[in-house]
UniProtKB/TrEMBL annotation:
Source organism: Xanthocytophaga flava
Catalytic activity: [protein]-L-isoaspartate + S-adenosyl-L-methionine = [protein]-L-isoaspartate alpha-methyl ester + S-adenosyl-L-homocysteine
Family as reported in the entry's similarity comment: Belongs to the methyltransferase superfamily. L-isoaspartyl/D-aspartyl protein methyltransferase family.
Record's subcellular location: Cytoplasm
Protein name: Protein-L-isoaspartate O-methyltransferase
Main location, first listed in the record: cytoplasm
Active site annotation, chain numbering: 72
CDD domains: AdoMet_MTases
Protein EC: 2.1.1.77
Length: 223
């Protein structure tokens, strides 16, 4: 795979494109300096197919990554990351590894990161890319709608595919004070939910803007 599918060298030209992307996201309302800093650091072009033009890799829209799946729009990645409100040392589970870009953004914090992907081809491909990049991320193949009970509880759970409803199993894998960020709704449009588990194991739900994710599959996903 080395050098065939991905371009993993960075340059001043790409850094300039990242700065422009950060300005664009700031104008669109992303306000967390930590999130913007992470977006500025992660070379998004590492995570898109090698024939993608540099301007495309840093444009604010989703891109096809094969297997009928997408790398999420940078605005969406920044929005979900901002809602997660990451703290140093958090144990975080991402559901829907896909290209690995969202995981790479999360990896900019000093955290313990787990990610799970249902598509075998994407799982293998992205696991190898993380190895090449020396990213110490725990990667799993399987149905993330069930969470990762063996490794629970998690301080943060991030779902990067649209769910028909909030999977009960994920709620029960949150630590006290933990947060689940998940798009919930119809197959093509979803509202972003942030559910916080309080110290009494009760759940407070906040509902944010409308997004359009690929469907979450698996037991608690779309059939
Ligand atoms: N986080 C990804 C990124 O940065 O590229 C976004 C990928 S895409 C929007 C959503 C991903 O969720 C797809 O790769 C899809 O295969 C995966 N997916 C869908 N249902 C899943 C499930 N039940 N468990 C794990 N992954 C799932």
């Amino acid at each position: 795979m080395r050098g065939e599918r991905y371009n993993i060298s960075d340059s001043e030209g790409y850094k300039t494109l990242r700065k422009e992307l950060v300005n664009n996201l700031t104008e669109k309302g992303i306000s967390s300096s930590e999130v913007l800093g992470a977006i500025e650091k992660v070379p998004r072009h590492f995570f898109v197919p090698i024939n993608t033009a540099p301007e495309e890799a840093y444009a604010d829209h989703a891109l096809q990554i094969g297997e009928g799946q997408t790398i999420s729009q940078p605005y969406t990645v920044a929005y979900q990351t901002q809602l997660l409100d990451i703290k140093e040392g958090n144990k975080i589970l991402e559901i829907g590894t896909g290209s690995g870009y969202q995981a790479a953004v999360l990896y900019q914090w000093p955290i313990e990161l787990y990610t799970i992907e249902l598509n075998q081809t994407l799982y293998q491909r992205t696991r190898k890319l993380f190895e090449q990049l020396n990213y110490s991320i725990h990667t799993f193949f399987g149905d993330g709608s069930l969470g990762l009970p063996t490794y629970a509880p998690f301080d943060r759970i991030l779902v990067t595919a649209g769910a028909p409803s909030v999977p009960e199993d994920l709620l029960h894998q949150l630590s006290p004070g933990g947060k689940l960020v998940i798009p919930v709704g119809q197959p093509k449009t979803q509202k972003m939910y942030r559910i916080t588990c309080n110290v009494f194991q009760q759940f407070d739900t906040e509902i944010f803007d409308l997004f359009s994710f690929v469907p979450l599959l698996g037991k608690y996903g779309w059939k």
